[in-house]
Amino acid sequence: MKLEIGLKACRAVPLDQILGSSVVLNWSSLGLATTVGAVTIEYHVGKEGAVESLKLWACAGEYLSLICDYVPDVGWTDGPRFSNGYHSRQLGRLLQSILMNQNLFTHGRRPNTNATVEIRVPTAQQTNDATLEVQGAFAGLQ
Q1: Residue 14's Cα: distance from chain center in Å?
Q2: Sequence-separated (6 or more) residues with CB below 8 Å from residue 50
Q3: N- or C-end of the chain: fewer Cβ atoms within 10 A?
Q4: Could you give the residue ranges of the DSSP H alpha helices within 72-122?
């Protein structure tokens, strides 16, 4: 499945970076606080080079807990499905925007591969940087 929305990015933003920024921005709204040491983002790039699935995992010590999973579909989608007591409407909408407009971002992954990104408890500076990153990435959309 290749998503073609017809929008152009103002600058090439790495997919890993924008996904990480989306998690950083919503760390508090997910209720992660400092009990979760990291969030792992997993995604699969399909045969046509588009992201076909995405999962977010909360990592606390040796334990993983699914935060949400998402399979984007240009014909129909309800957005990410949250699990295990996690929910953030803002994160859901942001992930949906990112994956439905993924032609705005670069990932450099080969078809039929998996990728992981790990996000640690963010600092105030990382949260500010993430805000600017997300605002800049979607500034060209009308």
Answers
A1: 11
A2: 1, 2, 3, 102
A3: C
A4: 89-100
DSSP state of 64: E
**b/e map of 114-124 (b: 16 or more CB within 10 Å)?**
ebebebeebee
Residue 51, H or E segment: strand 51-60
Contact residues for 80 (Cβ-Cβ < 8 A; gap 6+): 54, 56, 68, 69, 70, 91, 92, 95, 96
- Cα distances from 21 to residues 10, 76, 100, 119, in angstroms, run 17, 25, 17, 9
Q: What is the pLDDT along the chain (142 residues), one digit of tens a residue?
A: 444 444 444 457 899 999 999 999 999 999 887 778 899 999 999 999 999 999 999 998 889 999 999 998 767 667 899 999 999 999 999 999 999 888 889 998 999 999 999 999 999 999 999 999 999 888 765 4
**């997300």: which residue's tokens?**
134
**pTM of the predicted model as reported, rounded to 2 decimal places:** 0.87
